[in-house]
Structure formats: C-alpha cells, structure tokens
Amino acid sequence: MPLRLLKYAWKKSEDEPRFFPDEKPLKKAYDVVIIGGGGHGMACAYYLAKEHGITNVAVLEQGYIGGGNTGRNTTIVRSNYLTSEGVKFYDESLKLFEDLSDDFDLNIFYSTRGHFTLAHTDSAMRTMRWRAEVNKHHGIDSEVVDVETIQKEVPYMDMSCNGQHPVMGALYHAPGSVARHDAVAWGYARGAQQRGVEIHQKTRVTDIKTKGGKVVGVETDRGFVEAKKVISMVAGSTPRITEMLEIETPIEIFPLQACVTEPVKPFMDTIVVSGSLHVYVSQSSRGELVMGASVDPAELHSTRSTLDFVEGLTDQMMDLFPFTSRLKIMRQWAGMSDITPDFAPIMGKTDVEGFYLDAGWGTWGFKATPISGKTMAYTVANDTPHELIKPFSLSRYTDFKLVGEKGAASVGH
Amino acid sequence: MKFVTCPSLGRRALSEFTYGGRLEKEPDQESVSEKAWTDYVFYRNGAPQTLKEWWYHRPTGIWFLFERNTLTDRITRVEFANRGIENEA
Description:
The complex is a heterodimer of chains A (413) and B (89). Chain A is of the alpha+beta class and 413 residues long. Chain A contains nine helices and 19 strands. Chain A has a domain of 148 residues: D-Amino Acid Oxidase, Chain A, domain 2 (2-Layer Sandwich). In chain A, helix 2 packs parallel to helix 6. The relative contact order of chain A is 0.19. Chain B has one domain: Folate-binding fold (2-Layer Sandwich). Chain B is globular. The relative contact order of chain B is 0.22. Classes of the chains: A alpha+beta (413), B mainly beta (89).
C-alpha cells in the first residue's frame, strides 16, 4: 500500500482516469432512449447493457447525473412494506443494494442500521402488527417491539414525547439501512458507460414522436433522436412527459422537503420514523441528523423550500429528541414526488407501443433504485412486464386492482 | 410565509388554510360509464397548469375556491365557494 501511495504522489492529475469519460456526440438513432439520468435511469441502462446485451442506449438528462430526486431524498433503504406485492419488490431491491459496492468497485457507504417505525396510537400499533405479519410471511426480518426495547436502542429519545403522544411500541426492521445516494447513481452511470451506454447531460426531451401508435423517437433541445423504444424514468417530471403522448395517469406532484442539522457526535445508530408525527431521522456518517417529514399540502411543480416545513418538523423533533433544540439546521431542500392514489409505483408498458413508464415513486423511490432498473430493463428487453412489477401496471386503476400501500409509507400524507 | 388576499377577510397567511383538492365535476351517478367514473376518480392531467381548487379557512370555517398555478404557486383568484353545490355538479 505505501508503495502505491508513493506512486500516486508522483502522478499528475491528468494521468488519472476521469470517473466519467468525455461525452460522445449525440447520435441520430438508438435502440433505447431513457429519459431521466437519475438512479432509476442509470440502473436501467446498467442492467440493459449488463444482463441483456443492449448497449445502443442513450440516457438523456435535462440537468446533470443524479441532480433530481436522486440527490434529494433521505437515503433510507427498507422492505417492511404492507402489501405482498410491495414487500417482494422492495426486498429484492434491498438484496441488490447489499452487493452494489462490490458490483461497482465503488463504496456506496451502505450501512445497515435497523429501522424503528414508532406507533403512538392503538390504530398505529395495529398497522405495525399487520406489517410485521405480512413481512414474516415473506421471510423478512420485522417484528413489533415494546417501549423498553426501543428505549434501550435509542436512549436519547423521550418516549413520552413531551407528554403529548407517548410511544406505545414500534415495528422493528433489522435490515433497514442507509446508503450514499449520489454514489448509487454514479456507480450505475459509470457501470453503464463502461459497457457502451451513452449519457447525455443537459439534454432536455421536448416531445415524443409516434407513427401509427408506435414510438419513433424523441425531440430534444439538441435535435431529433430516433429510438425504437423510449422509457420515461423522470419521477417528479412524469406528467410533463406523459402529456406529450396524451397518456392519462393518476399522478399528482407534491414537493417533499428534507433538511440536515450541523454534525454532532455519533449517538444514534438506528433509523427512527414516526408516521403519526411525520418525522423520519437518521444520523449520517458525517454526524448530521438527516430529517424529513410529510409532503407539502398542495400540488406544486417546484423544489423551493419553506419556513413552514422547518417549523413543523423541528416542533415534532423536539418532542422526540428534546436536545435537538440546541442544533442548527444547515441545509434544506425539496424534491418533487409523483404521488399515486394507492401509494404504489406505476411501472411497465403503456398503450403506446415502445413507450415504457417507470413512475409514481412518490416518497419511496430511492430504495427501489436497483430493482426498478433491473425489472424495467427486463421489461424493455423482452417487451413483457417482469413478474415482480405486474401488479404495478398503469391499467390497475381502470381494473380497480389497486395496491394499497399507504399504511407502509414512512410519512403520513 | 405566504399570504392570500381574501374577499372580506383581507390579507391572511396561507397556513390558516387547508387544501381541499381540485374542483372537479362529478359525473351523474345514474348514467355514468365505468370509464368516465375511473377518469373522475383516478385519472387527471398532473402537468403544470392553472387549477381551480378548494381551500378551507380553518379559523372561520369558510370554504374558498382559489385559482392557482401549480408551476409558479401564484394564486390569481380567490372567491367564496358559497355556491358549493352549483360548483360541484
């Protein structure tokens, strides 16, 4: 190791290979165009190339890699969902996450913490019991724990919540983890590029062209690009894309805000979530408390931050962790959540031939990054929906086959 | 803090209001087709646009209809929803 370090010291910066190679010029035609260069888009490109040998792929991103919702979430990974469909899907994702650092040869700072979802009411306790039973049925490590167990794990928490809404118990999910969100997007992007995929940043799709009900290409602010298949993986911008093809979805956009405090000494290993208080919090490896709450109350296509959010969140945080009244908020931001009525995603084929949709990620998109990429790559390569995502088709609303996942959302909506 | 100028109440903080969703025409339940019903219940154009929305003023218990742009968050029109049934049907 010291010798390698010495060699490194003599190198000039230009001798080091860049993480991402230079962008190639935009070609006239691709087999597959992926709209959106976030985690999902990059993961889909990666698995298309790695598992299906489809490398004539362009990822078109209006901003920069991982600059949208991928960089705006609170990095929590878990699979303690409520419906069988959700549990199976997110558990596969969690398993993929565990191996990503090795797959990419890049540290994604995947850290298993254990995940408490607190219950402050009888009805919340019932939902926790329900989730624990569904989870166990699918072989997932989830159990309802009592107040003493929580207090032992999270000693700084006020279990009476300032006497306002005492904690009655929690759903404990041992595999609950956090990961560095940027690294996930970068790892997938580099892996895809190494296999021949082109990533074009600052390239906005302005229209999608069809001929006889079939996709033929996309119009961009850098000219027309032919494509046999087009996948939209843009989360918060989904309605703007589906509007181009006059596809109606139940998606509405709500801002989801989050913030971090100044760094403090490590005191909390676990992730703590309270659906009733609209709080979720974990301590990053830098020592900051990463905190989020529920989505903003009204539809809005914007990533602006508000004072109302910080006031509301810190009010609840101080009930749970009284000492946080002394901490400073360092940064605050918002992402755009594409919320569906049943709080489950919309994935798979659409009525337009060659156009695929990966949307409706609401407040739960980051944890689905690997499995969404993998199942969408399968769906596109075989032109048939992957088994795991069949329940998430857009037509489920017309068929009244909803996947009711609201009870397992981390936050109240 | 965001403010709204209401008829009669004057300038009020938006935080006094609760969002009540889009103003939408409910189809006639006797004659509605399944397609029209799912359209009404689920499907909508979620792209940025100017919407007419229900907003409830908690301190007075009065419902309002706002005209609001979902891209700029600008509220361009505020009116009483006192013709509620008329607006709904």
